[in-house]
Amino acid sequence: MALLNLANYNLSYPVITPEIRKEIQENTAEILTLTQHTTLNQGIQAGALGILSNLASRDKNDALSEQYLLKAEQILLTQKPVYYHVMINVVQDLAQLYAKQNNYRKAFEYQSKVTDYSNKLFDEGQAETAKDWKPSFSHSGKNPNSGRLQKKQPA
């Protein structure tokens, strides 16, 4: 994770020198090597591929950028449940790439995926929030059927 953060930080420089580029590429290669035989690391792998896609995009190599993003999408789909935070970024980048290429059909397809994954992330968040609340019914007062929600106390 530290290598991914470092590579991402280096990517934020306004001008990427050959030395910085080399460090980014080495860090992402190491990430992909280290995560090759471990489990539940799809988000990290996709993040590394996203960084490589960004570099390819800066080089005006849209075909390579697309390959990295499509590979990231496929990797993310192997994890159940899908890690929506990273998936949204990947499909958003694909939508933007296809729009830039005037491939509006693909751009629309991937923008629809952004909406779909965003809705699923929202639903997932709502479910987590709902788990934190429990109904508490009070039988005192004028309305014995009135209830209220109370936040669950941590166990």
Pick out its properties.
155 residues; mainly alpha; two-stranded antiparallel ribbon; 2 strands
**Pattern of helices and strands:** HHHHHHEE
Strand-residue fraction?
5-15%
Instruction: State the end-to-end CA separation.
Output: 30 Å
Query: With helices defined by DSSP (H or I, 4 residues minimum), what is the helix count?
Result: 6
Question: What portion of residues is helical?
Answer: 55-70%
Provide the spatial order of strands within the biggest beta sheet: 1-2
Q: Using only CA atoms, what is the Rg?
A: 21 Å
Overall pLDDT level: 88
Structural class: mainly alpha
Instruction: Report low-confidence residues grouped into runs of 5 or more.
Output: none
Overall outline: globular
Q: Kindly state the number of beta strands.
A: 2
Largest sheet: 2 strands, antiparallel
Characterise this structure.
By secondary structure, this protein is mainly alpha-helical. Helix content is 67%, strand content 6%. The chain is built from 6 helices and 2 strands; from the N terminus they run H-H-H-H-H-H-E-E. A two-stranded antiparallel ribbon has the order 1-2. Helix 3 runs antiparallel to helix 4 (62-76). The longest helix is centred in the last third of the chain and has 28 residues, at 104-131. The protein is globular.
